[in-house]
């Protein structure tokens, strides 16, 4: 047994000695926040790395998503998925917007475009899809619907750092895309997030909103929020960016090993790799079917007893939490695929520091 428990994700941290010079610079220039030099360097570096025109950094991904909704003045109803982390829908409630949940595709586990149109009402103003596990949504189908009904599209791209399709960055789709740099993500700044902005005017507006609405020293032009990323987070991000290629390569190798070891086990369904040109292997989900000798929860408990802490991600569905149960769109019969998947899914550990020995042990535990 490993000396330490193994969780689904483990923060990827660069060597401490590489971080010290950044700290020394922060101490020397006495600039801790408010668009300091590391903050500005990271915005530019990430925009270049991710292949987007502009990027606005935030203290965390939830604040970024809240602000994206404000920036586009979204009101009324927003169509979204029940199969996501609660922050996706919580940001709607915080903006006094009603979530309208629509079922997911059984293969990609993303919002099913074929079910969106039936959920549109006169109060619908936007669609909020999620690139689940970093696997891109059907962006073309979603955009066609949005254009036909004059709706905005905001992508929750929390899992999609560095993901590309045949045309480039997945973040270029929709009106805005929102990233998370939480400690568990492929790229992290401890906490953090960002909005990919299509043009300079949009970025300027978002920059005002994330800094209380200030323009200059004495002028406030909007009822903004304090969403700024500080210099400590930004410095860590700059250092992480130097190592992210190696981290992604290791994730790819782990994904390959899982697929080789698990693909022939009856009752364990692996999600297909997406059609994207660049995948980030953010998660490794498996679906536990009836032909497997254990139920999903029995397998979860078996792994946990061996100090392997898989995650039933996403379970329960957002639509099953108390603050959403009164909505018309939460009936399990209307969310049949999401309901079924949420009761069968387990995400297995995948992070750069996961050793081959521990990886093989996980595979052995799953083998009947």
UniProtKB/TrEMBL annotation:
<feature type="modified residue" description="N6-(pyridoxal phosphate)lysine">
    <location>
        <position position="185"/>
    </location>
</feature>
<dbReference type="InterPro" id="IPR000653">
    <property type="entry name" value="DegT/StrS_aminotransferase"/>
</dbReference>
<keyword id="KW-0032">Aminotransferase</keyword>
<dbReference type="GO" id="GO:0000271">
    <property type="term" value="P:polysaccharide biosynthetic process"/>
</dbReference>
<comment type="similarity">
    <text>Belongs to the DegT/DnrJ/EryC1 family.</text>
</comment>
<dbReference type="Pfam" id="PF01041">
    <property type="entry name" value="DegT_DnrJ_EryC1"/>
</dbReference>
<protein>
    <submittedName>
        <fullName>Aminotransferase</fullName>
    </submittedName>
</protein>
<feature type="active site" description="Proton acceptor">
    <location>
        <position position="185"/>
    </location>
</feature>
<dbReference type="InterPro" id="IPR015421">
    <property type="entry name" value="PyrdxlP-dep_Trfase_major"/>
</dbReference>
<keyword id="KW-0808">Transferase</keyword>
<keyword id="KW-0663">Pyridoxal phosphate</keyword>
<dbReference type="GO" id="GO:0030170">
    <property type="term" value="F:pyridoxal phosphate binding"/>
</dbReference>
<dbReference type="InterPro" id="IPR015424">
    <property type="entry name" value="PyrdxlP-dep_Trfase"/>
</dbReference>
<dbReference type="GO" id="GO:0008483">
    <property type="term" value="F:transaminase activity"/>
</dbReference>
């Amino acid at each position: 047994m490993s000396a330490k428990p193994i969780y689904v994700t483990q923060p990827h941290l660069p060597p401490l000695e590489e971080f010290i010079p950044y700290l020394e610079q922060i101490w020397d220039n006495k600039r801790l926040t408010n668009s300091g030099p590391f903050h500005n360097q990271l915005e530019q570096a990430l925009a270049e790395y991710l292949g987007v025109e502009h990027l606005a950094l935030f203290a965390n991904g939830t604040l970024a998503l809240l602000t994206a909704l404000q920036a586009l003045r979204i009101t009324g109803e927003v169509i979204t998925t029940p199969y996501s982390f609660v922050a996706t829908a919580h940001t709607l409630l915080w903006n006094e917007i009603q979530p309208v949940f629509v079922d997911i595709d059984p293969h990609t586990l993303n919002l099913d475009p074929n079910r969106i149109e039936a959920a549109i009402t006169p109060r619908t103003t936007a669609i909020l899809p999620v690139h689940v596990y970093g696997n891109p949504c059907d962006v073309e189908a979603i955009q066609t619907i949005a254009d036909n009904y004059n709706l905005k599209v905001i992508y929750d791209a929390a899992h999609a750092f560095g993901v590309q399709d045949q045309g480039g960055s997945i973040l270029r789709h929709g009106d805005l895309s929102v990233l998370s740099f939480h400690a568990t993500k492929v790229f992290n700044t401890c906490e953090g997030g960002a909005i990919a902005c299509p043009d300079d005017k949009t970025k300027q507006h978002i920059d005002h909103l994330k800094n209380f609405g200030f323009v200059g020293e004495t002028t406030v032009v909007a009822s903004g929020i304090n969403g700024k990323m500080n210099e400590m987070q930004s410095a860590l991000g700059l250092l992480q960016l130097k190592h992210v290629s190696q981290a992604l390569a290791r994730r790819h190798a782990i994904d390959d090993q899982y697929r080789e070891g698990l693909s022939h086990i009856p009752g364990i369904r692996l999600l297909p790799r997406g059609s994207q040109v660049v995948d980030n292997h953010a998660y490794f989900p498996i679906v536990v079917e009836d032909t497997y000798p254990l139920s999903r929860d029995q397998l979860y408990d078996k792994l946990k007893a061996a100090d392997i802490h898989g995650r039933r991600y996403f379970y329960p569905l957002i639509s099953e939490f108390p603050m959403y149960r009164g909505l018309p769109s939460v009936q399990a019969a209307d969310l049949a695929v999401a309901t079924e998947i949420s009761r069968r899914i387990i995400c297995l550990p995948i992070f750069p520091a996961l050793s081959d020995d521990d990886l093989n042990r996980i595979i052995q535990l799953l083998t009947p």
